[in-house]
Design goal:
The chain is α/β, with parallel strands linked by helices and about 350 residues long. About 40% of the residues lie in helices and about 25% in strands. Helix 4 packs across helix 5. It is globular, with a radius of gyration of 22 Å.
Length: about 350
């Protein structure tokens, strides 16, 4: 289900962009601050419903205007469907269409954070991919959040004998166990795909993704909730929850100490492994957004990553400075090039590279 067309209005420095995206790899070429990353960011907003850069890079709305809007048309066997995203002056974003309608995957200068960043990032990575891989996962997470809110409200009300028996403990334990079990199933498939990819690429073969999250059955969770009930009542919320989860990379059984470049490669490869798992389950290929690939990577490593990306069945957009495309022996004649300058995006010839 590829992205056919993108219409961008007043987003960052992109005033009015209307482009068609082909099925082959597309190079997004232009000088610094031209709008290359903004183009990828706009497509990311269509897929995920939010920016990957955040407010520290300034407003998402073009200076002098009060709102921005992005539209995309996704091709299906029976035609094309439209998805849209908009942001108003108060920075409230509206997303029309499910994030799973356009799955997007991002490679950028922060990709190494999947190795050395905050646990919340890796947890979101697992849960987002799980939601694409297993159709029942969104409902499972929704049920867990509802029961967590109900149990927390009961705790804040006193959670004593005068408020009745602990009716929320058992359903909460069951919902939490279901989340843990689903994560464990997905992560096992992810590890298998990671090892298969690393063996084929002969890269990072000594690295083992390891699940550090809690794995417990319903009865064990129920017993823990009972033991922690008094402390939970005092703090006003349930300490034992789905946020107690993370994964790490190990080498020969020990924590893997990676350089920034190694961390970026591992972050890319775990995403490639996740895409293999997810696409095999639902038949859809993600749109890959590749920004600043050369950051932290040698030219040889960038070339190896490009070769791995070209094996992906989905669309790929790669930013590059003029004359500084990553070395890529497999560069194909059907590659498209978009030239970006002063917020304008136009199709261009390959000689711009």
């Amino acid at each position: 289900m590829p992205l056919e067309r993108v219409l961008i209005q007043r987003f960052r420095n992109l005033h009015a962009v209307d482009i068609e995206i082909g099925d082959a790899l597309s190079w997004v070429v232009g000088p610094n601050a031209a709008g290359k990353t903004a183009l990828l960011e706009a497509i990311y907003c269509l897929g995920r419903g939010r920016s990957f850069r955040g407010r520290r890079f300034g407003s998402l709305i073009e200076q002098g205007f009060s709102a921005s809007r992005i539209q995309g048309w996704v091709r299906h066997p029976l035609g094309a469907s439209r998805i849209a995203w908009s942001s108003s002056a108060d920075e409230r974003a509206q997303h029309q269409g499910s994030g799973s309608t356009l799955p997007v995957r991002l490679i950028c200068e922060w990709t190494h954070a999947l190795v050395d960043g905050e646990p919340a990032l890796r947890r979101r990575f697992v849960d987002w991919n799980l939601s694409l891989w297993e159709r029942s996962a969104p409902a499972l997470f929704s049920r867990y959040r509802r029961l967590a809110a109900q149990r927390n409200a009961w705790l804040r009300s006193g959670a004593g004998s005068s408020f009745g028996p602990p009716v929320w403990d058992r359903p909460y334990a069951e919902a939490l166990a279901a989340v843990f079990e689903a994560r464990a199933r997905f992560f096992a498939a992810l590890v298998e795909a990671f090892h298969r990819l690393s063996a084929e690429a002969d890269w990072l073969t000594e690295i083992e993704p390891h699940w550090d999250g809690l794995v417990a059955d319903r009865s064990e969770l129920l017993a823990r909730l009972e033991q922690m009930r008094a402390a939970d009542r005092d703090r006003g919320f349930t300490y034992l929850g789905a946020s107690r989860a993370d994964f790490s990379f190990r080498s020969r059984g020990q924590p893997w100490l990676a350089s920034r470049g190694q961390g970026k490669v591992a972050g890319i490869m775990i995403q490639l492994a996740a895409e293999a798992v997810v696409s095999a389950a639902d038949g859809r290929a993600a749109v890959w957004l590749v920004d600043d690939l050369d950051a932290e990577l040698s030219p040889e490593w960038s070339a190896r990553i490009m070769a791995l990306l070209r094996r992906q069945p989905g669309q790929i957009l790669v930013t590059a400075l003029p004359g500084k495309m990553p070395i890529d022996a497999s560069r194909a004649a059907e590659d498209a090039v978009f030239h970006v300058e002063h917020g304008r995006v136009e199709p261009a010839d390959m000689h711009l590279s």
